[in-house]
Amino acid sequence: MVLRTTLKTITNMATFDFYQDQHVKIWERVHFQIKADSKEEAIEKAKQYKDKDVAFEFETDSTEMLYDTEAVLVPQNDGVPTLQIYDDFGELICDNSINE
After folding, report:
1. What is the mean pLDDT of each run of 10 residues along the chain (100 residues)?
2. What was the pLDDT predicted at 4?
3. Can you say how many angstroms the Cα of residue 59 is from the centroid of all Cα atoms in its chain?
4. How far apart are the first and last CA of the chain?
5. Which of 5, 17, 60, 82 sits most deeply, having the most CB atoms within 10 A of its CB?
6. Among residues 70, 72, 86, 80, which one has the least CA distance to residue 100?
7. What is the 8-class DSSP label of residue 56?
8. Strands (E), the chain
9. What is the pLDDT of residue 98?
């Protein structure tokens, strides 16, 4: 009897939509080609891009998001949140920022 009352109460409740934005760190794999006379020369050319995004330097073949490398970022003391909850109108409801 108590179970039926509880279910009836739940079904009469209104439903509200929300969404959560989550700041994550993830690796992305970018496939590209280098033209060279040998594999060794191509390797040396590739090494020149160790500090650059090859997507801006080459025509890329494809990209992959490596989802198994995804990690949720933890908020720091700089006050920047890594999780935010919004209502269905896009209004920020709360976040996990650390404020001193």
Report:
1. 55 90 94 94 94 84 92 84 94 86
2. 55
3. 24
4. 50
5. 82
6. 80
7. G
8. 18-22, 24-31, 62-72, 83-87, 92-95
9. 78
